[in-house]
Amino acid sequence: MTDVLPGHPNRSPNHPPDGVRTPNKTPAAPGPRFRRRGLPRRPRLLGRGSRTPNYPAGLGSLIWLGIVGLPLYVLVAATFQTRDGYIDDGPLALPDHPTLANYRRVLRSDFLSYLLNTALVTAVCAAIVITLSVTVGYTVVRARGRTSRRIFQIFLLGLAIPSQAVVIPVYLVITKLHLYDTLLAVILPTAAFSLPVSVLILVGTLRDIDEELYESMALDGASPTRVLFQLVVPLSRSGISTVGVMSALHAWNGFLFPLLLTQSKSNRLLTLGLYDYVGEFRVDTPALLTAVVLSILPIFLVYLFARRQLINGLMGMGGK
Fold it and tell me: What are the boundaries of the signal sequence (predicted)?
């Protein structure tokens, strides 16, 4: 509150006396601004529409699009051609008379049986890998003992052992267990070789979970099993999705173990079923590529819906 002069109830000390005019204090117009020598100019902000186009990047993108798109075009276009038309016109020609005969032929063959076998092997492998990798990763992160570290090192050692190097021992073990020519003979080694990288991913995912969350559940009296299912699994869904998609891709595209450990046609998978269109003296290329397209679609749909979780898990953001 300002002080009021005596005798002037509404006059403050800063108010000029009566009869005295104050100069008009209007702000002066700003003068020209001079830039000091040696100082850089402030960068000019460009709008979104005024950005300079990056022509080399655009050219590189078009080249890469052509490299990726040309094989896909050849793959899809050949499925609508006849065998004679494919041989006469070549793989790059558009089909003169598109036909669905190749799709009808493939679907009427044993393709659906191969597809069911492959889907069963893929689902069981993914379930085994997810179950074991989550429990092993939880043990490695929470136990913090010498034994858990040794277990983790053994799983990491599996990353350096290729499946081709242990083909003969795996074949001998499968035959001793009387599992040869069964789908279980393909499931077990396929899941085993998917475990090392899956455990590595989930250990990194579980380490992102805050330690305070573990401690708060321990103070509430939660058992390790309850912590696993109520804390670890919900907060590591991205890592689990990554492990599931990677193990499913590995099982779906597997060729070596189905080739060596199965023999009968009833236990054949898609990767071996493609040989039905390869004869001794000729190859039915349109029918073969049609079977390839149909075998790609299921696993492509799985990847399409789980691609975000796959990328997040590989970037180490599964627990956040």
Answer: none
First to last CA, the chain: 55
Say how many CA atoms lie within 13 Å of 251 toward its Cβ.
34
Q: Where are the domains of the chain?
A: 67-99, 111-314
Helix (H, G, I), strand (E, B) or coil at 279: coil
pLDDT tens digits, one per residue of 247-296 = 998 999 999 999 999 988 889 999 888 888 887 677 888 888 999 999 98
Rounded to an integer, what distance in angstroms lies between the CA atom of residue 273 and that of residue 299? 17
**CB atoms near residue 33 (< 10 Å):** 5
Crossing angle (nearest 10°) for helices 183-206 and 167-176:
120
Task: Say if CB 75 and CB 293 are below 8 A apart.
Answer: yes
Among the listed residues 207, 210, 200, the one whose alpha carbon sits nearest the alpha carbon of residue 151: 200
Q: Say which CATH architecture domain 111-314 belongs to.
A: Orthogonal Bundle (1.10)
pLDDT in tens, 101-134: 889 989 988 899 999 999 999 999 999 999 999 9
